[in-house]
Amino acid sequence: MPETSQLRSGVTGQALAEDWKTSDFHCQELAAVVYLLTYTLVLNGRRTRRATIWQQGADGWTVLYHRGTVVQDL
After folding, report:
1. 18-30 average pLDDT score
2. Strand partners, 23
3. pLDDT tens sequence across 44-74
4. Distance CA 36, CA 52 (A)
5. CA–CA separation, 45 vs 25, rounded Å?
6. Phi, psi (5° rounding) for residue 59?
7. How many whole angstroms separate alpha carbon 63 and alpha carbon 66?
8. Which pLDDT belongs to residue 12?
9. Highest taxon of the source (predicted)?
10. Please, is 21 exposed, middle or buried when counting C-beta atoms within 10 Å of its C-beta (0-12, 13-18, 19+)?
11. How far, in Å, CA of 6 to CA of 40, rounded?
12. Confidence at residue 14, expressed as pLDDT on a 0 to 100 scale
């Protein structure tokens, strides 16, 4: 996945430039409408592995669990 930059508004209302890159996406079905999504995120030079459990319901998708763990480059 190509590197992406995002501009968002901070708490003070000033724009904050953030450089982020995502990679290593994997999706695994845990149950009929429940999925585990894992991926790597590099945000402003800090690498994390992310895991999110999603459930599909009548109103769309809901996050049941999310975790990010900082990892070092090998």
Report:
1. 92
2. 40
3. 889 999 999 999 999 999 999 999 999 987 5
4. 6
5. 19
6. -95, 5
7. 7
8. 53
9. Bacteria
10. middle
11. 17
12. 53
How long a stretch of residues is the chain? 74
CA distance 8 to 64: 25
Check residue 13 and give its pLDDT.
53
Structure token digits, residue 29? 């079905």
What's at 2, amino acid-wise? Answer: P
Supply 72's token pair.
């070092």
pLDDT of residue 29: 97
